[in-house]
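Input/output pair, single chain:
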Amino acid sequence: MSVSDGWYMFDTDFNRLIEALKSNGVWSGLQVQAKATPAQAVDIGAGEAYVNGKFIKITSTQNLNLSAADATNPRKNIVTLDENGTLAEVTGTPQAAAPSGQTGPNTYEPKPPDIPANKIILAEIWRAANDNTVENADITDRRVIIKPIFETQFLNFFGGFLTPFDAEAVGGDTGYSVSKGSWLVRVQAAGTANYIAWIRWRSSGYTALYSIFDLNPQFEFYIKLTNATTLADVYIFMGDVATSPTGTAKKFGVHIANGALRIMSADGSTWSETADLMTLSGAQFYVIRVKLFSGSKVEVWVDRVSKGTKATNLPSGSIASGQEILTYYIKTGEAAVKTIDVSAAKLIHD
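Output:
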């Protein structure tokens, strides 16, 4: 959105910017517009956002019916999106317009309502007295577009020590393949039992990663198991690899064993994992979020729904210099090619 001279600023304007600093805001789309024939309703376009740290995707234009205008005075309402993907109108308090004769953001009265907790604002709507049709001129865009921390944005998040996507470390047993695009990477292990393939983002040549495990780190990614739902082990994790994903070097993430999702972690002396939390198919992409609540638990969400927690063998402190920050890893369990398609990851911490 843009701001024009003569607009008045309120706490809602500053609070939405504070939320953006926490990576809560609109990723793309979600523009609020009047109906083709103005009515007491608006359309919200398809788009994506992060709300309260959760990824929200709306795949088609949504209708939002609005409350009736006040009979005597104008008011300002806002359109919000919550962490469950629900769109809503929040109504303000009707007041005579001040300065007199002005409308919308050019007024300091009426004041817009506060943004409710765990919601982001998409638009502000001027509701003139006794007027139950909304036109585009009544709608002020209040979206804050946040840039996803993918590729080069991802690389700069912890201070710029990661190299670009196409220069990261890859490897595996004979015949492995890692195909890297601008957003998606395909990791494929060759058709021999117990063969591996991987891609890693490293902190090579830099100092230890300043107590990252004590800062509530989390990461989120899309994954499609493709043909890795049987006799295959997939590991996506943050932390040191050392000898293997199941080694005791400090880490946390997920292990997908024959399609079954588990939480895994290691504290530097012991590696462990949960029982199966759910079964993933190879026919679709899932969005998986993994968060370490430092000193408390690891929690995993699939498509915005919490699937479980793990409270044992949690890492703390730093990732050592030269060790892995993020790893995508696959291992075959039979003499057949195994493939996963995974997006770049969004990493954040306190």
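The helical segments are 11-21, 152-156. Residues 148-167, 204-208 have pLDDT under 50 and may be disordered.
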